[in-house]
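Table S5 (text form). Sequence records supplied for joint modeling of the two-component complex.
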Amino acid sequence: MRLTADEQAMLEGRRGEAVRDAIRYQIQVGEFWNAERFVPITNAHMMGDIEVMGDAGFSWLRGACEKRARCAIPITTNARCIDFAFAEGLGQDPGEAAKEREIIQLLREMNVVTTDTCINYQTIYQPHLGEHVAWGDTGTVIYANSVFGARSNFEAGPAAFAAALTGRTPEYGFHLDRHRKGTFVVRLEASLDDLADWGAVGKIVGERHQNYFAVPAFTGMRRAPVADELKHLGAALASYGSMAMFHMVGVTPEAPSLEAALGGNRPPDEIVIDDAALERVYAGYDLRDRSANLVVFSGPQLSLLEMKSLGSMLRGRRLHPGTQVFVTTSHGVKSAARELGYLADIETAGATVLEGVCFYILQNLSQMRERNGWTNMVSNSAKIVNIIGAHRFNTILRRTRDCVEIACTGKLQ
Amino acid sequence: MSAPLARIDVRRAFGPVVEGEAVVSTEGFSPRYDLDRWSGVITRPGHKLEGTSIRDKICFFPTAKGGIAAGWAFFDVKHKGIAPKALVFGVTNPVMVQGAVFANLTITEGWSPHPADVIRTGDWVRVDPARKVIELLRR
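The corresponding structure-token record, covering 552 residues in total, follows.
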């Protein structure tokens, strides 16, 4: 990689040991991808909690702090694994909770803003067209690239943190024009009335094109989608397909027309998604013992408008005895939902609203599953239905209103 | 040293030269979605390698799945002593690379010929990132 004088100084250790280690690591990653140079970034978003880092990552972070690592640009944190107010009730390990508290302190000391949210793009920072950032989780990246027209690769925790220390990231992948063009076309003929429908589209498209550099260009929308719909679509595309960008003609900024979205690419055929295709997704889940004792609204965290909508569906109702419902959102959204009364609607029905976490990375989740006798997990999030498998849940995607019915009747259909 | 029985050229590569037993998967991989990070066994119900340990193996996967959390996972499993020796991908994503580099774990992307044509699970193979080759040493 070609280095500027600044970058050379970093590599020689003139900005301290932590910055030297960071840029050395970034160069190794950049060289793998044949990056020619670094690109300056304005914002980073990192995943860093005890469940994903483990003790090894925790020790590494301590080491970085001892080397006086200090982030040079704004960096926020993704959802974490413990909501301290609920840790004991959920049977989470007090030792791990103590480590989590220390991680938060270490990050703050290193100039990291511990927002603990995977919907930073809805609640914290909205980069503009062409702005280079270094974000993770995947849902944040696909939203940044697609909806804002900003530029980011998937940046894992150590990579986003390194980027914040040096203020730059290797220029490859979605920082480059040539990777941002649509590589295939998807025509949407389905009604797409529910968030889960948008996630199901992401599942169908992602499963067929498991490739980071595949970029779907959607056409045929019957109406302009709203932010939460694009969020569920993007999160599912990223999860099932490992994709980091999509275009939606007439909706996203780099797709004023299909020709612009494809930028000279000529995909041979197109995928058509109609109502029947979505119904096949919903019909495709094995219901196992038909147990309906766990319904989850999480992954991504709920926006304030999703909280409002869920609150109105649960208002005046009670969860079926034995059924547990978990909702996860950000600190800010939970606080606002409390002020606005949405939280009371959800909690009075018997649901648990966790903040600053995502359900699938909850510390001790496998043990929690065993202790509670959960076999099935029902959710309106196609993403979480996909990613929670290693914890041995049998997962079932259902529309939001169906999830609420299942939770209140205990009947899974 | 006898000549390798077969050779695969890879497109991109990082890490030290390693030798080990091959595990060839027809399904993609994520250390978060598919792997029990306490045992090193693939536990995702229905995964083509469900029940298989990847500890000390040279793992061939056609694709990488998901997820940012994988970035810390390789470092974690390496320190638990249950990491694979190398990850050989047909197509990978930046997180796998960032995670593998962070853990100093050998990783490659792109292959010719396709490993399914020359390598079987249980074969003994060597990955040489500097030369961008994978060699079948014995079976």
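Note: Chain A touches chain B through 45 residues (CB under 8 Å).
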